[in-house]
Amino acid sequence: QHANNKCVSSSSEVIAFRKALLNPVTANEFQRFVSLQGDLLENGVLFWQEVQKYKDLCHSHCDDATIQKKITAIIDCFINSAIPPALQIDIPMEQAKKILEHRRDLGPYIFREAQMSIFALLFKFWPKFCKLQSNLASDKILLALERRKGKKMQKKE
Length: 157
Prior knowledge:
It holds the Pfam family RGS. GO terms for molecular function: G-protein alpha-subunit binding. The protein has 8 helices and 2 strands; from the N terminus they run E-E-H-H-H-H-H-H-H-H. With about 160 residues, the protein is mostly helical. Strand 1 (about 1-5) and strand 2 form a beta hairpin. It is globular and about 45 Å long. The chain starts with a strand and ends with a helix.
């Protein structure tokens, strides 16, 4: 669908993508797929999933200490990593700074903007992944992606 010359996704595509990210098997295949497209994209899938788990924690009314530990874990892994680069996901630096400033806020929305940015970025690769999925039997997808990764590594060498 096109609106103002921009491609607009249908809500059913967005819902299908969201469900795929929540499905461990499909998410793993998609993560491998995007790892071939760019360095931080694979981390984007993991970040999105961890933020979903964090939001589930918030909604389950668990204790503040547990929620704070989850915030810290997500920040230490993706936003302010000890392993360079400190920012392990593809979000604007301002978003990362905002998260760090609000790291003591325990609500479910601390990672909202970053999660939406990552979702939008990853969603661009969804149609290509769907095409790959439709051309291969489900048990052959990971094998095909491993072959592509091998070829990509050979080109780098």
